[in-house]
Specification:
mainly alpha; 3 domains; 7 helices; 0% strand
Length: 170
């Protein structure tokens, strides 16, 4: 194919429907979703060779009000346990007729989560900086309250300083 027209979709389902309706010629999606659409009777054909592969993963919101490190450590421990027992492989084969769990076990996704446990640059332990900066990494409501408290403190100091200077000068 030369000069293909690229069309994007919010997720795989409308893209597959566009192929089934003849609006586009082809659509790349994950194998389980495409196989499911074919099983549902959509007039689609799966490629003979895999065109791309993606690990199905979960995500952790950076705006968590709780520390994500311990949560991620627990999730990792549970996943490791399920892998070692062979349960994830068995579930993958049962529901998808393919072992997606074994290649996923080799995939190291923890590199992106290490930043949650690192001390800020320039500080040995980062404890005080973490306590001070913690409100700024939380939800919007927490940040707004923190901004209000900070602004109030600055205003009180400024007004107090002006009143003191005026009261002590003759």
């Amino acid at each position: 194919m030369t000069d293909p027209k690229i069309v994007t979709f919010a997720n795989e389902v409308p893209g597959l429907q566009a192929v089934a309706d003849g609006k586009i010629d082809a659509f790349l999606c994950s194998q389980p979703v495409g196989a499911g659409a074919i099983a549902d009777g959509k007039p689609l054909r799966q490629l003979d060779k895999v065109a791309f592969f993606t690990q199905k993963t979960g995500y952790v919101d950076r705006g968590l009000t709780l520390a994500p490190g311990p949560f991620l450590d627990r999730v990792d421990a549970v996943i490791r346990d399920l892998h070692s027992q062979g349960k994830l492989k068995a579930l993958s084969i049962q529901f998808f007729k393919t072992d997606y769990a074994t290649p996923a076990a080799a995939f190291n996704s923890r590199r992106s989560t290490r930043r949650f446990r690192r001390a800020p640059p320039g500080l040995a332990d980062g404890v005080m900086a973490t306590r001070i900066s913690r409100p700024w990494r939380r939800s919007l409501r927490s940040r707004l309250v923190a901004y209000f408290v900070l602004l109030s403190a600055v205003t009180i100091l400024a007004v107090g300083g002006v009143v003191y200077v005026r009261a002590t000068t003759t």
